[in-house]
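Hi V.,

Quick status before I head out on leave. The structure for the redesign project is tokenized and pasted below; the design run finished overnight.
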């Protein structure tokens, strides 16, 4: 009987030095690094790579640092509090690039036609008042964490596609995702756009209604990116490449199990058990698994970066005078680590 061992099993089973030898790379002393994440299903590859030993297999002693918004994460990378992070582009992140503090080195979550992706929601109160499609967003309030956040950008894309001037939509800056959820549930705000894993819970509770999908207005939107300090990108190339490799292995696991559904039932269960440990852990496992599967969004294979999308986000921030017009793509993006698409 021939025993088949996949790459994941080999890495976990052999340990750091053995795995690196197997993969044709020299072992090196474990380096302590911190990774900034949020408790969202879209951060699943970070959890999978930790739990399955992928970071350790690349010689990284990695610790997860949890955040509730994108901008504080960018500040933490710039200050050296964390080494790498996965989150959406924001005013704070782009502005820090001007000071040569941060570089976007890869892509993560992305919108894709045919997948649920990010859901556009109306509060139950607003829906009853006629906000039943994105075309009805004129005169409404829309939840964002901060001006220049990914939520703001999505609102801009939705409004632009429906011919609604942004001046006709009132942005409510609520700082944290949890605060936006509460505001939508209470009817304090009329609308929001959020990943399906969170949208599903709001819809199930009857506190919100689905009125559209962001992928209808931004089908190739690079929602989140992988970024690090300029110092790491320039001077810690072996470490940074090791991080990308480990993370990419976990991305493959996630996409196969949850997005493409090409993995075995046992593998799907294992992946979802890992995600549930970090996300929606207060909910019953079976309920959380159903949400993870029904609302899955693709993570870019190999951490590939959708350069057209992130450049569009940069140009929008510049056009709206939220960041300096002197910031160039070269100042923000280091494309030497991953494929650009």
């Amino acid at each position: 009987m021939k025993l088949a061992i996949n790459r994941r099993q080999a890495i976990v089973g052999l340990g750091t030095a053995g795995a690196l030898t197997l993969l044709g790379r020299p072992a090196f002393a474990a380096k302590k690094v911190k990774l900034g994440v949020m408790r969202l299903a879209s951060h699943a590859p970070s959890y999978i790579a930790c739990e399955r030993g992928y970071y350790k297999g690349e010689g990284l002693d990695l610790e997860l640092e949890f955040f509730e918004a994108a901008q504080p994460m960018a500040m933490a990378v710039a200050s050296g509090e964390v080494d790498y992070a996965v989150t959406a582009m924001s005013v704070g992140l782009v502005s820090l690039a001007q000071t040569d503090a941060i570089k976007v080195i890869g892509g993560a979550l992305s919108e894709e036609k045919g997948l649920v992706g990010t859901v556009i929601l109306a509060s139950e109160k607003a829906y009853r008042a006629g906000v039943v499609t994105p075309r009805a967003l004129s005169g409404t309030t829309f939840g964002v964490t901060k001006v220049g956040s990914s939520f703001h950008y999505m609102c801009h894309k939705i409004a632009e596609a429906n011919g609604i001037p942004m001046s006709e939509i009132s942005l409510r800056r609520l700082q944290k995702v949890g605060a936006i959820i509460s505001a939508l549930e209470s009817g304090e705000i009329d609308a929001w756009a959020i990943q399906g894993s969170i949208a599903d819970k709001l819809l199930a509770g009857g506190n919100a209604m689905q009125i559209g999908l962001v992928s209808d207005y931004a089908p190739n939107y690079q929602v989140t990116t992988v970024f690090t300090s300029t110092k790491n990108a320039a001077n810690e190339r072996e470490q940074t490449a090791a991080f990308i490799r480990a993370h990419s292995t976990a991305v493959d696991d996630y996409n196969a199990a949850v997005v493409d559904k090409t993995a075995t039932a046992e593998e799907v269960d294992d992946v979802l058990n890992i995600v549930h440990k970090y996300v929606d852990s207060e909910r019953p496992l079976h309920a959380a698994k159903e949400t993870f599967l029904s609302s899955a969004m693709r993570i870019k294979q190999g951490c590939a970066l959708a350069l057209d999308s992130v450049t569009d986000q940069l140009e929008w921030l510049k056009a709206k005078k939220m960041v300096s017009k002197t910031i160039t793509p070269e100042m923000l993006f280091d494309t030497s680590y991953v494929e650009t698409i």
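Above is the designed sequence. Confidence is low (pLDDT under 50) at residues 1-7, 9-24.

G. will cover questions while I'm gone.

Best,
W.
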